[in-house]
Amino acid sequence: MSIPFSNTHYRIPQGFGNLLEGLTREILREQPENIPAFAAAYFENLLEKREKTNFDPAEWGTKVDDRFYNNHAFKEHESPENGESAKEKSRGSVKEDETPVTALEPSEEEKEKEENAALKIQAVFRGHLAREEVKKMKSGEPQEEKREENE
Length: 151
What we know:
Largest sheet: none
Order of helices and strands: HHHHH
Shape: elongated
Helix content: 55-70%
Structural class: mainly alpha
Number of strands: 0
Radius of gyration: 37 Å
């Protein structure tokens, strides 16, 4: 007999997920042999800290989650005409008023750096060509000597 699957999602109390995350983090860090006893000691220690400092990590985590999931700053309200938001309209008007930007001439210091870089590249390439030519000359010399010896 099979068990049918469903799309039901169970809701857990606010802050409980944060408590379990903290417990999981400590279990992975400490790696105790007796996890249930470690969890009991962890929660007792957490209760003592909460009573002494009046700071509840579960409550704090709930507030952080709430702020993350219910952040109204990123929500845009749709305007009734043409489905465009107010921000898109304002962007469009700014684009019409903008003037084209031209590239600035590089400063003297930048020009000097570019020229030095070009000189280095050219010198390295010339050195490469010279080394290649020397290799050709060296590989050609033994062949000429062998020809002379054979004659």
